[in-house]
Design a protein that fits this description.
Layout lengths: L1 H18 L19 H10 L5 H4 L6 H17 L3 H20 L5 H14 L6
Helix pairs in contact: 2-4, 2-6, 4-5, 5-6
Length: 128
């Protein structure tokens, strides 16, 4: 009986050690503010992660905030490199992520309007 208990206890310890992470890493959806090319991308990230938008994203399995921020960061890099055509294209593509969610019925146009308006106001790139 003691042997069985000892084996169970050791297996739990070994299993627990194997499961516990050795290096602390952030989840892919957490802030990448240190690596953003422009401060306005950080401001948009803060807006996208507000609690008031959580229910809007609930039906969207794609995690649109992450994709939008990735595209906006690339737009910021292109803008910094004076490639306004590419920057504009990437910013338009970022807004398209939300438009695609409307087409797929994850949310409505009126639900994403405050988000897209905020992005349009804070992106220094003219998005048509």
């Amino acid at each position: 009986m003691k042997g069985t208990v000892m084996v169970c206890a050791l297996s739990l310890l070994i299993g627990g050690a194997a499961v516990s992470p050795s290096v602390v890493r952030g989840a892919p959806w957490t802030s990448a503010a240190d690596s953003y090319a422009a401060p306005w991308v950080t401001e948009i990230e803060t807006e996208l992660h507000k609690k008031e938008y959580a229910m809007i994203y609930a039906n969207d399995p794609r995690t649109p905030q992450k994709e939008v921020l990735r595209l906006l960061n690339r737009a910021a890099q292109a803008h910094a490199a004076n490639d306004s055509a590419l920057a504009q294209q990437l910013a338009r593509k970022a807004l398209g992520v939300f438009e695609e969610g409307v087409r797929r019925h994850y949310y409505t146009q009126s639900e994403i309007e405050p988000i897209t308006s905020y992005i349009r106001q804070h992106v220094p790139i003219k998005v048509r």
